[in-house]
């Protein structure tokens, strides 16, 4: 049954949060074991920047983490592609649509929000779990 299961492409959603960093680390370690490629996607929420602003004008915090995950992937010998996109609708839809367009085999995402209910996912993570066209691994 699982003989044909091959994970070649892993999409990790990153936003600079601590759980996002853990998800990035996990995706790189998993890719190393599975000999898979990783795409790190940073989705800028709709309305965060004015349309006339350059997409490259993210916060230093955003891009510092993208540099960090790039260095980790080079050290591990894992192929990494980094995409930064501006959401046209919701962050959840952008991640799910990107995974579908790029034929992603696995999405890795961290839980961002801290809830008093420990077993509840954040809204972005739960939305990706429901809408992604492939399996989703949630990292806390």
Beta-strand percentage? Answer: 15-25%
Biggest sheet layout: 5 strands, parallel
Number of domains: 1
> What is the fold named in CATH at topology level?
Rossmann fold
Radius of gyration: 15 Å
Tally of helical runs: 4
Give the distance, in angstroms, between the N- and C-terminal Cα atoms. Answer: 29 Å
* Low-confidence residue ranges: none
Q: Please identify the top-level CATH class.
A: Alpha Beta
State the fourth-level CATH superfamily: HUPs
What is the H/E string?
EHEHEHEHE
Q: What strand order characterises the main sheet?
A: 3-2-1-4-5
Description:
This protein is an alpha/beta fold and 140 residues long. The protein has one domain: HUPs (Rossmann fold, 3-Layer(aba) Sandwich), CATH 3.40.50. The chain is 39% helix and 21% strand. It contains four helices and five strands. It has helices spanning 18-34, 60-76, 91-101, 123-131; strands at residues 9-13, 37-44, 80-86, 106-110, 136-139. The chain has a five-stranded parallel β-sheet, with helices on both faces. Strand 1 (9-13), helix 1 and strand 2 (37-44) form a beta-alpha-beta unit. It is globular. The model has no long low-confidence stretch (mean pLDDT 84).
């Amino acid at each position: 049954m699982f003989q044909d299961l091959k994970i070649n492409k892993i999409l990790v959603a990153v936003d600079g949060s601590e759980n996002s960093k853990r998800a990035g680390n996990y995706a790189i370690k998993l890719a190393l074991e599975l000999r898979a490629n990783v795409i790190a996607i940073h989705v800028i929420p709709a309305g965060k920047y004015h349309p006339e602003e350059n997409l490259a004008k993210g916060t230093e915090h955003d891009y510092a983490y993208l540099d960090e995950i790039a260095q980790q992937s080079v050290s591990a010998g894992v192929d990494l592609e980094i995409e930064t996109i501006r959401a046209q609708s919701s962050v959840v839809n952008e991640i799910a649509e990107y995974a579908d367009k790029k034929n992603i085999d696995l999405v890795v995402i961290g839980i961002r929000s801290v809830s008093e209910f420990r077993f509840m996912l954040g809204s972005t993570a739960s939305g990706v779990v429901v809408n992604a066209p492939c399996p989703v691994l949630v990292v806390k």
